[in-house]
Amino acid sequence: MRKVGLILGLLLALATLAQADDFEHRIVDVRAKAIAGSVTAAGFGVGSLSGNPAGLAAQNRWEAFTTYSDLFGLGFAQQDFSLALPFLGGGLGFAYTTMGNSEDVLYEIASTQLSYGRGSGSLAWGVSLRRGALNSTGGAAHAFALDAGLRGTRGNFSWGIAGHNLYVRTDPVSKAQSVPREIKFGAALQAGAFLLSGELINGQELCFGIEQDLGAVKLRAGFKESSPTFGIGIQQRNWLVDYAYELGELGNTQSLGLSRQF
């Protein structure tokens, strides 16, 4: 009975993912997950690859992270490896992400992304090229997408605009409807060691996040889609361990990340 229940749960999750579209934009950065994904104006470094590529503009060191998320507690997993480094006056980033389940019901998506960000004064811009591949019992598909973003700062205040899936090509062509466009407007206020951020997604959904930096420990929380998020970061020299817990109607998601600066 337990296995039957698990399979039914997987089918429900697959139905939800199908409604959300196979190649939709997904946040993988664990810090971002902990503050409800509200990093369009507050993201930086390697974590910017899944938020706003303009956050790569100030990249001055090599930085790598790997993440793992247990989605909904139903056997779905999301894994990511990302790398960011200084390049031609800005920052260059690479990410490889997989998501899905391959045991009871075959559903896997693999995504490869290349991003670049650069800034001048208080304004930064960034672009990302992403290729996704779907392998499932329902068939296979591929998608190519372009993301772009802007970020500006004025004192302790920052703003950001990010567009995901702005340009899309799919194979088969009919799969284009499963690559939805997403536009985010974000704002953030840094008051000493305290961060308050928020963003509006597609003019409909609001999410908010807070972060308190205590030095070696960073406490985080957020709110999106009527559900809270929580997280913590623990830093030791150039190493950072991040944890996030997201509550949701389909199930709760736990994420763990490990970052290293060089």
- What low-confidence regions span 5 or more consecutive residues with pLDDT below 50? 1-20
Q: Overall 3D geometry? A: globular
Structural class: mainly beta
Helix content: under 10%
Rg from C-alpha positions?
A: 18 Å
How many separate helices? 2
Question: Strand order across the biggest sheet?
Answer: 1-2-3-4-5-6-7-8-9-10-11-12-13-14
Estimated share of beta-strand residues: over 45%
Largest sheet: 14 strands, antiparallel, barrel
Written as H for each helix and E for each strand, in order along the chain, the element string is HHEEEEEEEEEEEEEE
Mean pLDDT: 90
Number of strands: 14
End-to-end C-alpha gap: 49 Å
Description of the structure:
It is built from two helices and 14 strands. With 262 residues, it is mainly β. Strands 1-2-3-4-5-6-7-8-9-10-11-12-13-14 form a 14-stranded antiparallel beta barrel. The longest helix has 19 residues, at 2-20. It starts with a helix and ends with a strand. The model is unreliable at 1-20 (pLDDT under 50).
Short description:
This protein has two helices and 14 strands.
Write the layout of secondary structure elements.
Elements: H1 2-20, H2 30-34, E1 63-71, E2 76-87, E3 90-101, E4 107-120, E5 123-136, E6 139-154, E7 157-171, E8 182-191, E9 194-201, E10 205-213, E11 217-224, E12 227-236, E13 239-246, E14 253-261
Antiparallel strand pairs: 1-2, 1-14, 2-3, 3-4, 4-5, 5-6, 6-7, 7-8, 8-9, 9-10, 10-11, 11-12, 12-13, 13-14
Structural descriptors:
14-stranded antiparallel barrel, mainly beta, 59% strand, globular, disordered N terminus, 262 residues
